[in-house]
Task: structure prediction
Amino acid sequence: MALHKRREESGRSVARVLLESAEAVELPPAEFDEQNATIEREEFHPHLPQLFYELREGCWADPAPMVQSDSIFVIQGETRDFWVRIWHTNDARTGIARLHVLSCLPIAPTVKINLPFGIQQ
Result:
């Protein structure tokens, strides 16, 4: 994880830890202020409670496929996959300083088609 420093409005410097990994990461339950979450598109907003629930309960964050960045992760909610960047307040990952939602995609259920006998696939 990379340590990034940022200046707050008060002028003091604050360190935040950007979650980075090429492997899946187990996130412990974390506390955070929902006001520190930003979104790429306003239409994601109604689905954010799913993401907030997962982060507060603890979840797995999988590296985003086909992205050349070790800091973008996919977190699976009940009905949506959230592509996110997460900055933690400490190395223990129990507090989230900032959360940015890049994408929010509906989960496509697995469809299985049974073909009748005698038909070549």
Observations:
- The longest strand covers residues 95-106.
- The chain has a mean pLDDT of 86.
- Residues 48-57 form the longest helix (10 residues).
- The chain has one domain: 2-106.
